[in-house]
Amino acid sequence: MHNHSYIYSFKYDVHNKELCKLESRQIFGQEEKNNLLFSNIKVDPSISPFIKGRFEIISSSEDYSILLKKIKKENIRIEGFKAEYLVLNGDSTRYTERLEKLKDIGYSIEGEPDYNTPSITYSICHYNNIWYFGVLIKHNSDWFKHKKKPCSFSSAINMVIAKTLVSIASKGNKSNRLLDACCGVGTVLLEACISGFNIEGCDINWKACKYTRDNLAHYKYIAKVYCSDIKDLSCEYDTAIIDLPYNLYSFSNDTITLNIIESAAKLTPRIVIVSASDIETLITQSGLKISDFCSVGKKGKKFTRNIWVCEKNRMN
Ligand SMILES: C[S@@+](CC[C@H](N)C(=O)[O-])C[C@H]1O[C@@H](n2cnc3c(N)ncnc32)[C@H](O)[C@@H]1O
Q1: What pLDDT sits at residue 170?
Q2: CATH class of segment(s) 6-138
Q3: Which of 71, 190, 256, 295 lies most in the core, judged by the most C-beta atoms within 10 Å?
Q4: Would you say the CB of residue 84 lies under 6 angstroms from ligand 1?
Q5: Distance (Å, rounded) from C-alpha 71 to C-alpha 123?
Q6: Which of 143, 203, 151 lies closest to 167 in space, CA to CA?
Q7: What CATH number does the domain located at 142-312 have?
């Protein structure tokens, strides 16, 4: 029997597998397996592009009739609830049986159900011969609206990576102070703002800053954007994200890369670095310790983004 409070379910495309696993290691300290993860760590499922839902376990049993008795014992009285069967990987329960079980759950709760705008969603699922009853919080896909952000550069990072950078940088903690050190048009800031993270942005290019501010204003998000070289910033942050210039649309070389990384390291003990090239030697040269890594291939293109999670060495 699992001794955990939450079951997280995941969904991702093959090319994002390593990115999802990196996120999972950083948030939960373990990788999802079989699109599932049991944990005592509570995070908002909508901070991740890969978490489909968080199931908060109320009771469980190997015996379905015992589970029903346990549910009735909870004496749940609530108006506007909904009951939903959560099909986890490996659950072969047939559709008709799933419907029967949903009815059982419905009859075990006192109150009028509301299927369209439920006040709470109770759920049942089956995994490794154990039945679980709990509350289901589903992923909110409102962030897809950022696909239509008014301003963009072709060097902008894709939304899925941007969202994952925020979840990795924050580890799901919404009180952490985050910095996007090279914010471009603000793709990362939008993903942070929609989930209520505390983030600021910085870019040396005035046009990028204008575009970021226009994008934020379009969705009525509030975040400070510094039009500045990162070396001139002086605030402190819990984690910084750096999507480095790729020498494609803005000039870059090893000296520039090193300067950006070293400047960010003065503001924070932890940095999530993104680059199209292999800059591991430069990261080590800057005195940072690499604690985690993954490589993400861009669908249909040869362009790869490398992501390093780095910590400041204690002696620095
Ligand atoms: C790859 S782009 C970032 C793209 C961004 N993630 C987005 O989605 O739009 C790198 C950005 O770094 C900025 N940059 C380059 N050197 C910088 C520095 N010293 N300080 C701050 N920003 C810098 C560039 O102006 C460019 O907008």
Answers
A1: 98
A2: alpha beta
A3: 190
A4: no
A5: 11
A6: 143
A7: 3.40.50.150
155 CB less than 6 Å from ligand 1?
A: yes
User: What are the pLDDT digits (tens) for 148-174?
Assistant: 999 999 889 999 999 999 999 999 999
In the block, tokens 């939960």 appear at: 28
| DSSP of 253-306 | -HHHHHHHHHHHHTT-SEEEEEESS--HHHHHHTTEEEEEEEEEEPTTSS-EEE
Same fold, 6-138 and 142-312: no
Q: What is the pLDDT of residue 154?
A: 87
Q: Is the CB of 294 under 6 A from ligand 1?
A: no
Ligand 1 pocket, 156 CB below 6 A? yes
Max CA pair span of the chain? 67
Separation of CA 17 and ligand 1 centre (Å): 26
What's the CA gap between 284 and 64, in Å, rounded?
A: 54
- Residue 259 Cα to ligand 1 midpoint, Å, equals 13
Q: How far is CA 55 from CA 38, 39, 46, 307, in A?
A: 10, 10, 13, 29
Residue from 154, 180, 182, 242 whose mutation best tests the ligand 1 pocket (most atoms within 8 A of CB): 182
Residue nearest to atom 3 of ligand 1 (CA): 184
State the pLDDT at residue 185: 98
Query: 192 in ligand 1 pocket by Cβ < 6 Å?
Result: no
Give CA 294 to chain center in angstroms: 15
